[in-house]
Amino acid sequence: MPRRPETAQASKPARPGGVADLLRQLWWTFTVASVAALAVIYSARPDVLAGMTVFPIWVWGLGPLFVSFLGTLRKKRPLGLAFLLWLILLTLYVDSPQAWVRGLVHPAPQERTETRPGYLRVITINIHDNTLALRDLVRYEPDLILVQETVSEQELIEVAGSLFDDGGHVLWNRDCALISRYPLERVDLSPVLRGNALSAIAQIPEVDGGQRVCVNVVHAYSQPFRFDMHTPEFWTAYYDRRLLQLKLMETITRDIPNVDQFDAYLVGGDFNAPPGDAVFSRLPKQLTDTFSRCGVGWGRTIANDLPLIRIDQLWVNQQLTPLTCAAFPSAGSDHRGVVADYLIEDGFGVVSQ
Questions:
Q1: Using an 8 Å Cβ cutoff, are 271 and 313 in contact?
Q2: Structure pTM?
Q3: Is 135 left (phi over 0), alpha (psi -120 to 50) or beta?
Q4: pLDDT tens, 222-249?
Q5: Which CATH class name applies to 100-350?
Q6: How many whole angstroms separate alpha carbon 238 and alpha carbon 50?
Q7: How far is CA 191 from CA 179, 217, 256, 258, 353, in A?
Q8: Where are the domains of the chain?
Q9: Any stretches that span the bilayer, and where are they (predicted)?
């Protein structure tokens, strides 16, 4: 019996991707828009969005990065591209990623080993009115300590006596202080800055001919640290505080000694602002952030137990060559300290070694 010819089956129409495909496309659109918006916001850091940029960019990016990563495990192309975009954004805008890499190779500075002329070890620390945080610094053998939220002058003198064989040198006001291995000469500032800044000239005799290092301690106004982002009051509070901080930093920069008058120049302390904030644009243009140049490891300083933001910083001019810089846990403060090593340069290069 002859076989019947087989009838060709009609091809089935392609099924739409359904809800899953729609969600992936929506996530891709959300990613492109969000990454572009965050890049613009964290590049410009407008004052009206200070309540947003006071937090590190990864606060907004880690969640979407993780969700996109889960999509890459299922080999979904839009989510894989989204993961790549978030990764690029965080890599470009996170604070000092190169310091993490250095931390894998170079240990953070601990015991002092340098004996070269012109070597200078500097620490800045907000001690939260706790002398223990200062006494703990003896293990680092510092030359200069920039103190914020200080204790009494008598307590500082006692600490200096335990740090330096000759008793050291101390300058003090109601909030900021300097403890030094070397003689200090106070620079008078406006009375309105008495709780926010302290300036002095440190004479470094070990360098050929001596070097005058201008040291400036800064303690800027703190942030409101509110989290009710859904209210207008949240944004107003951060906006108003940003304007106050900018005005304060402009006053400090105008009142502290001119950077060009000294062999070496240093500004450090608790700026109460994250890296990249407009507050730092008010500093003298000749200064650079030490940690961004040679930082090692996780440089965040607040809070001491769970450091998330690097608000304690050291800025120097080109006559202070940074060697290394790191944050370290403090004893009794809510801040971590920052220790940095420098070589003082003369007009023609690094001092003789």
A1: yes
A2: 0.89
A3: alpha
A4: 999 888 999 999 999 999 999 999 999 9
A5: alpha beta
A6: 6
A7: 21, 15, 12, 18, 41
A8: 18-94, 100-350
A9: 21-42, 48-71, 78-94
